[in-house]
């Protein structure tokens, strides 16, 4: 029993995700957010956009990039709170977010990750423009098409 416990504890320690790596974003942990914001596309990690962007997105869900993604008040508030608390410019999240927010002015409210100067820069270097027309990719927002573990927060290896 004793050895079993030690093994279990050690196993747990060694499988703890290592987030102290700026290339791995913490995976989304909030169940409601995963359910509601993962219905049409991957649930984007909150660290990919600043607080003011999530606020703007959550305030305009019935007019969401051409779709009606509206939710009841309580659900909206719950998700909004989670996203804002873990945004690119809040607390520890700026560890990942500061890269994402490079070149974004405080007065700007970006609504797309894929329009952030850093994102555009990272994706212009290695990819030819024609890649976005491929039928298996379709959209810049389709992170999972190239970053196979994007929903786990991995973007470095594709
Ligand atoms: C009814 C379907 C639907 C739901 C539900 C939905 N979205 Fe979207 N979302 C879209 C569409 C469509 C786009 C545009 C995708 C594209 O450009 O390919 C989009 C784009 C986005 C983008 C911008 C992606 C980029 O280009 O950088 C963000 C951020 C986003 N959604 C967040 C959310 C959040 C947060 C929720 C949950 C509250 C949510 N979405 C729920 C349909 C949805
Ligand atoms: C057409 C394929 C493709 C799509 C779609 C795509 N990416 Fe990328 N992404 C790449 C490539 C290629 C690179 C540069 C090589 C690398 O660092 O892996 C890259 C780099 C990145 C980086 C920098 C990683 C680093 O090196 O630190 C981030 C962050 C990133 N992508 C996030 C995203 C997000 C978020 C989405 C969806 C909103 C997305 N990508 C969609 C191909 C893609």
Key terms for this structure?
158 residues; mainly alpha; binds heme C
**Using DSSP, what is the number of strands?**
0
Largest sheet: none
User: Helix/strand/pairing class, anyone?
Assistant: mainly alpha
Helix content: 25-40%
Instruction: Give the overall shape, derived from the CA principal axes.
Output: globular
Radius of gyration: 18 Å
Number of structurally distinct domains: 1
Bound molecule kinds, no repeats: heme C
Low-pLDDT parts are 13-18
Explain what you see.
By secondary structure, the protein is an all-alpha fold. It has one domain (28-152). The protein is 38% helix and 0% strand. The chain is built from six helices and no strands. Helix 3 (51-59) runs antiparallel to helix 4. The longest helix has 14 residues, at 2-15. It is globular, with a radius of gyration of 18 Å. The model is unreliable at 13-18 (pLDDT under 50). It binds heme C (2 copies). One heme C binds at residues 23, 48, 113-114, 122-123, 126-127, 131, 137, 140-143, 145-147, 155-156, 158. One heme C (HEC) binds next to helix 6.
Give the gist of this structure.
With 158 residues, the chain is an all-alpha fold.
List the helices and strands and how they pair.
Blueprint: H1 2-15, H2 31-37, H3 51-59, H4 73-85, H5 94-100, H6 117-126
Helix pairs in contact: 3-4
One heme C is lined by residues 23, 48, 113-114, 122-123, 126-127, 131, 137, 140-143, 145-147, 155-156, 158.
